Amino acid sequence: MDYFNAEEKARQAQFAVRRDRILSPAVDLLVRHEITPNQVSLAGVLALLAVCLMPPSLPVPATLFMALYVLCDGIDGPLARRLDVTHEGGSLVDIVADQLGVVFLSAAAIHHIGAWGPTMVVFASAYLIFIALAVYGNAIGVVMRKVVRAKYLFFLLYLGSLFSGRDLVTYFCSAFALYYSVQVVDSLRRIYRFHDARRRAADGAPSEE
Length: 209
Fold this sequence. Notes:
By secondary structure, the chain is mainly alpha-helical. It has helices at residues 6-22, 24-32, 37-53, 59-83, 88-113, 117-140, 151-164, 170-204. α2 (24-32) crosses α4 and α4 (59-83) packs antiparallel against α7. The longest helix has 35 residues, at 170-204. The mean pLDDT is 90.
């Protein structure tokens, strides 16, 4: 269960090998202390909440908690593979924890740095709907389009806004709100055509006796 197309999956597999090698000492430590992948995901979400609760006057702690969130997001998968407990349920937990950053930080940007509310709502909504459609499309075998992943750049711009005291996210998120809205329409079109083709094929197939 994932939200990458075929070309992205190949690159992700290569990246996962390098990431697992780099994070191996940390994974060994977690295994020795009997920490589960879901506990790591939960720790990451709590770190994300801490980022969102940090006032703009504390950018350094916010950055440290953001680093912890990203680390937890990167380590729960290797830990699951090391423990041989990978399954679709765990992948779903990982995806949800991974995408919460866009939702929570969009709200935090409105509250802490004065980002324009409508832009942040459309950006977060379009992004999440696209991710959901991509996961569903991959699950049923629909070929999805390659897209630009703006999440981590958004995180950096949010932290940059805290350090600079300026809103660095509104214009960026405005552009990507439009971009992901277009991707949502395209994904819906691909999925609709897939199901329509299956229905037509079923209607035209000879009945089994």
